[in-house]
Amino acid sequence: MTKPNKTTSQPKKGLHPRNPHRARYDFPALMKGTPELKAFVKKNPFGDLSVDFSNPQAVKILNKALLQHFYQISFWDIPEGYLCPPIPGRADYLHYLADLLAESNGGEIPKGKAVKGLDIGMGANCVYPMVGHRVYGWQFVGADIDPVSVKSAKLMVEMNPSLKGGIQCRLQKNPDHIFAGMINAKERFDFTMCNPPFHASMAEATKGSERKVKNLAANARKKGSEPFKAQPMKGKGKPVLNFGGQNAELWCPGGEAVFIKRMIEQSADFKTQCLWFTTMVSKKENLPGIYKQLKELKVEDVRTIEMAQGQKVTRIVAWTFLNESARQNWSKNGEK
């Protein structure tokens, strides 16, 4: 097994080189494609156009504009209170996955419907499958335990002609299962991906959201680009979650460490049906336990891919049960 400290970092702090969101937002272009964004755009103290990232509605409409402008997603909406993730960071995960898949494809990024991915916990926003399909043409299965999320994702897929035939949305009826019921007997996936609920309680998730707003504000001031007006409280002391999120999206008993532990355990049951299993790991302190568990399972290779967006640093941990020869021959062995 390759040592788990094998780490791939970006040449400099920031988004992936292929990520189209590396530059500042072109608000005139975004507003042209999504007119409703105009209501949330104004000049900040530095004279630059921007939006208030502590305003949940502003974040949602900005996401809609980004998806329309960069990925030709004509219809995107989520139920009130559901997770509204930042598009740039979501796109980064997919670009790094593309690099990983290229290793078993002669150094070239595999594109098109022959490549199939499984998004664990796609949420009501369905962002990973949408962006992955539009950028690389990959096929996706999006899985979630929440019926509302699955219904929302299905509607968006149906409403966007550009996504036709590219994304399946599946309801996981057993919350204790991650892959069982989602990976069929004869099904193969080039990768699985997951942004796990990393908080252990709603209270912890609330604090995390407040830190996120402060970090975004600090980074914006450093760049001199984004205005922020803190909105830490709403109503009777209820914190504003500017990115939203239901319980299953934000937290689970034991938090990120327990969720990933369960994912690793269950991945062993599908070791020949997936080329790479991957997950986001937000908390660096969880890495030693993850590496130990993977070593005990005797996986063939482990990768840690570091990512950065502003002041936030996170990483993808990827593992495979297939040896080098099997990985190189993956695309030749059977239908996906």
TrEMBL record:
Organism domain of life: Bacteria
A single GO molecular function term of this UniProt record: 23S rRNA (adenine(1618)-N(6))-methyltransferase activity
Which stretches does UniProt call biased (Polar residues)?
1-11
Top class in the EC scheme: transferase
**Protein location:** Cytoplasm
Enzyme Commission designation: 2.1.1.181
Q: Where is the composition biased (Basic residues)?
A: 13-22
| UniProt-annotated stretches for the region Disordered | 1-24
Provide one Gene Ontology cellular component: cytoplasm
Which Gene3D superfamilies does UniProt cross-reference here? Vaccinia Virus protein VP39
Q: Name one GO biological process term.
A: rRNA base methylation
What reaction gets catalysed by this protein?
Answer: adenosine(1618) in 23S rRNA + S-adenosyl-L-methionine = N(6)-methyladenosine(1618) in 23S rRNA + S-adenosyl-L-homocysteine + H(+)
Keywords, alphabetical? Cytoplasm, Methyltransferase, rRNA processing, S-adenosyl-L-methionine, Transferase
Q: Per its UniProt record, what Pfam families does this chain match?
A: Methyltransf_10
The record's family statement is:
Belongs to the methyltransferase superfamily. METTL16/RlmF family.
Instruction: Say what the protein does.
Output: Specifically methylates the adenine in position 1618 of 23S rRNA.
The protein depicted here goes by the name: Ribosomal RNA large subunit methyltransferase F
Provide the species name. Answer: Grimontia celer
